[in-house]
Known about the structure:
This protein is α+β, with helices and mostly antiparallel strands and 90 residues long. The chain has helices spanning 25-31, 40-43, 68-80; strands spanning 20-23, 46-48, 54-57. It holds the Pfam family DUF5953.
Amino acid sequence: xxxxxxxxxxxxxxxxxxxxxxxxxxxxxxxxxxxxxxxxxxxxxxxxxxxxxxxxxxxxxxxxxxxxxxxxxxxxxxxxxxxxxxxxxx
Length: 90
């Protein structure tokens, strides 16, 4: 279950994941991105901005909720970043 934005522990943590995500330097730090060992797949579709933030695509094509591979990519991303949506127990 995702929490409402006002229930998140810090404003830097994203409320949810989308196909295309922008994470500021503070947001990336708060969720632990990038971790080269755990984020190799995401890093193939990510780029660091001049300000140190990150633009990250979960899949090569826009998310299609009827595509099992896209749903699996979304599930893996939520599992990797439990802080997103305030689901982390930390």
